[in-house]
Amino acid sequence: MQDYSPFLNLFSKHLEDYSRALNKAEPKELYQPGAYILSLGGKRVRPLLALIAADLLEQNPQKALPAALAVELFHNFSLIHDDILDNAPKRRNKATVHIKWSNNIAILSGDILLVKAIQALQQGNHKLEQAQLDVFLRTAAKVCEGQQMDMNFETQKKVTVEDYIHMITLKTAVLLACSLQMGAIAAKANKSVQQNLYAFGKHLGIAFQLMDDYLDVYALKNQAFGKQIGGDILSNKKTFLLLRAFELADKKGKQRLNAALKMNDQPKEKIKIVKSIYSELKIDQLCITEADKHTQIALKSLQNIKADNAKKEVLKNFALQLLSRTK
Amino acid sequence: MQDYSPFLNLFSKHLEDYSRALNKAEPKELYQPGAYILSLGGKRVRPLLALIAADLLEQNPQKALPAALAVELFHNFSLIHDDILDNAPKRRNKATVHIKWSNNIAILSGDILLVKAIQALQQGNHKLEQAQLDVFLRTAAKVCEGQQMDMNFETQKKVTVEDYIHMITLKTAVLLACSLQMGAIAAKANKSVQQNLYAFGKHLGIAFQLMDDYLDVYALKNQAFGKQIGGDILSNKKTFLLLRAFELADKKGKQRLNAALKMNDQPKEKIKIVKSIYSELKIDQLCITEADKHTQIALKSLQNIKADNAKKEVLKNFALQLLSRTK
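^ Those are the sequences you sent over. The predicted structure of the assembly is below.
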């Protein structure tokens, strides 16, 4: 298995220094929640993508550290605010910011992380790569749009699989794409390389979210998935699986699905029935096929890039490990 | 009376075009609240300061339009989020965003306005003035810090007048200062001019907030103040007046003040007693003196700038009109 620890160590050291300063900044109620959520850990996927992209193209991942920090701060800004929107009590088994402090503090400490994310792009003499800022801001807007679409879907009657793919592209995939492109910009890559890395990240992100939907239902207990199996079914979340099932089911199948969605007092039975409908319609396989389609598009984009093949393998393996979650 | 309508017309036209596009953007739930709060009006003080500064230095206010839009969008982002924090039902006699839509929509639509504010600084070919972005981001962080301090003061036992001046500097004054400096940067002014305009705006902002505290208690009914007289007293808000009164009152005076603050069931009586204590301690005069001190520092900074005297008068008069609220 590929060893990403040099990248992770490089970023972790940088983040640690940053978080230490953040934790001391005044007023504490504004800055400590940011340091807290950063301290909860995570795979640091987005900063690693920025560093690996820069390394792929220029052998110097250091140059992508400002971009790596920016995407991680932005990601954590969005987590703080999303946890308020989702009313989520826990993240990584620890209290979310709005629970540990308050909604008001979570709003403001999220806001400041967004400002700090953009400041992280500024280097000595407040210079920054304008192209990095540009992709970053366009991505930030898309992530907000995706989050709003996700909220809308909760009450929206008609949601197509196409709508869903569009939503996860905005909410999840473009930030991975942006991380890679910003790493490429740090390495002074040309526009075509940037675009191919962006496409790689976008389709990887879509595949990742589809596998997330899949694993929510089908993960083995010993798989390091970190969520309650069947949670999406229990909350009637409009995932790829559920939306595709509604599209494919016949009239009677739709009735059975609708009836199952109302079985909130029998969670085990609810999961069992929905899974059996999925199974009849081969939804599990369709989800994997769809994820695989996007993985292949991602890998094709990577092939288009002229770079050291061994280094391209590093990025490819990182992507595949991310999709299988078997690290 | 000075006529600012050319500046206001220039900005209003620009903002109108922008808001129209914002109002049509998808998803609507994300973008329409921003267009809504912008449509509620306001004096557009911050963008006017940016335009007047650019006009003062270069005769071409057009160049400061991106900065003017950025500060207005940022201001409205902060209003949307502050209204959640303050649980405010109304703004300019219309429902606040979190009331008209929901807290969740107010959080996200505020977030996107912050992103859009920074995007507004980007011009053709996504170029921007790095110095503008720098002062803008540092100011954005300060505004969040000031908002957090203001929240902290609500429950903080010991708040000094000095703490209070620091808080209003961050929460209110630096955004006026930033608007002027960004206008100066747009006009390619040198660092010394930028700093003098920043200082002008900062002290103007402090004076403005002190006069806001004063007028909350002492505004005549026919003055165009737009708030309920005595509102700060009724909500026990730690304003300059209350904090200075606690500093100056003797033991018995402090007891009377503390007793008055608890009279929530007798609002008229509460206002009357607090005002009589203020009157005994000449707090009203002290507040005006303090505001005047900052106005003088502001005007001194303006004098330091080498520019057309008639145009300096324009900016001076704008400031004085702002302080007197008698437009």
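The first strand of chain B starts at residue 90 and ends at 91. The two ends of chain B are 9 Å apart (CA to CA).

Shout if you want it in another format.
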